[in-house]
Design brief:
Number of domains: 2
Number of strands: 10
Largest sheet: 5 strands, mixed
Mean pLDDT: 86
Radius of gyration: 28 Å
Strand content: 5-15%
Shape: elongated
C-alpha cells in the first residue's frame, strides 16, 4: 500500500505497525524515511488500544466489590456533619468503619485527637478539621476542611457516591491512565532513541535522532502488546518481566536500525518507480 502525503510516498499508515512491527523490515525503513514527526501520535494510538482491557477489568472488579461489600460498609456509615469547617458525629469516638474480611480499617472518624496518621493504617482519617487520605504505607495527603460551611453526609449520600463511582469509574480512569502511561512511554522512547544512536553508529545506518524517535515509538509495540496480553491472561508483573520487555524493545530497535543500514547515505531504500520507456518516435 502506498499513501501519498506532501509529495512523499508512504508505504504504510499509522495502523500497520500494530502487526507489521513484529516482523517487517520494510515497515521500519518506511517509518525512518517517509514518516513525519517523532512517532508520538502512533504511540498514543497504541496505548489507547492497550488500556481498553485493563480499564474494563477495573470497572468489572470494582462493581463486583461494591456489590459484595458495599452494603456491609454502608451499614457502618454514621451521619457526619461539617459546619464552619468542624466535623461532628453523635457516635462514640474513635469511630471505625471496617471492610469485612480485612484487618485494615477503611475509615476512622476521631475529632478528639486520639487517632493520628502515625497510629492508624486507615485509608481515611477524619479529624475535627481535616481529612487525611492515605496513598500508601508511607505517604498521606491532608485536606483542610475550613472551606466547608455546611455539609451533611449520611448513608444515603454515601450510597449515591458509590453508585456514581460504579457508573463513572471507567470514564474517569481511562484518560488518567492513558495520559500517565503516555508521559512514561514518551520518556522511555526518548531514552531508547539515544541508545538507537549507538546502534546506528555500530551498524553504520544513516539515521538521525528524530528518525530514531519514530523507530523507537514503533519498536516498543511488541513489548506493549506482550504486556497487555500478560494482563489479559491474569499474570502479575515483576522486575524480571520488566527486564524482559526492555530486552524485547532493544531487540526490535536493533532490528529497526539494521533494516535501515542496507541503504547507503543519500540512497533511498525505496527508490521512485522507473518511468516507462518512451516508444519509438513515429514521424
Amino acid at each position: 500500500m502506498r499513501i501519498q502525503k506532501g509529495g512523499i510516498v508512504k508505504r504504510y499508515g499509522i495502523f500497520h505497525p500494530l502487526l507489521l512491527s513484529f516482523y517487517s523490515p520494510s515497515l521500519y525503513r518506511d517509518v525512518a524515511e517517509n514518516w513525519k514527526g517523532v512517532g508520538f501520535l502512533y504511540l498514543l494510538l497504541l496505548l489507547s488500544l492497550a488500556w481498553i482491557h485493563p480499564i474494563m477489568r477495573l470497572q468489572q472488579t470494582t462493581v463486583s466489590l461494591m456489590q459484595t461489600l458495599g452494603p456491609a460498609v454502608l451499614e457502618q456509615v454514621p451521619t457526619i456533619t461539617i459546619r464552619q469547617g468542624e466535623v461532628a458525629i453523635s457516635e462514640p469516638q474513635p469511630y471505625v468503619i471496617t471492610i469485612p474480611g480485612s484487618d485494615t480499617p477503611l475509615a476512622v472518624i476521631d475529632t478528639t485527637g486520639q487517632t493520628t496518621p502515625e497510629n492508624t493504617q486507615a485509608f481515611l482519617l477524619l479529624t475535627k478539621r481535616q481529612a487525611i487520605v492515605r496513598k500508601n504505607l508511607h505517604e498521606t495527603r491532608t485536606y483542610d476542611l475550613a472551606g466547608i460551611q455546611d455539609l451533611t453526609v449520611d448513608r444515603t449520600t454515601a450510597k449515591r457516591i458509590l453508585d456514581g463511582c460504579q457508573r463513572w469509574l471507567a470514564v474517569l480512569s481511562y484518560p488518567l491512565a492513558l495520559l500517565g502511561s503516555y508521559a512514561y512511554r514518551i520518556l522511555q522512547v526518548l531514552i531508547y532513541a539515544a541508545i538507537g544512536l549507538l546502534f546506528a553508529r555500530l551498524l553504520k545506518a544513516p539515521l538521525e535522532y528524530p528518525e530514531l524517535l519514530r523507530l523507537s515509538s514503533v519498536a516498543v509495540t511488541p513489548a506493549i502488546v506482550a504486556d497487555t496480553l500478560r494482563g489479559v491472561a491474569g499474570f502479575g508483573s515483576s522486575l524480571a518481566w520488566w527486564f524482559f520487555c526492555f530486552l524485547l524493545s532493544m531487540g526490535y530497535l536493533l532490528f529497526a536500525v539494521r533494516a535501515n543500514s542496507s541503504a547507503e547515505p543519500g540512497e533511498r531504500a525505496y527508490p521512485p518507480p522507473t518511468p516507462p520507456m518512451a516508444g519509438p518516435a513515429i514521424g
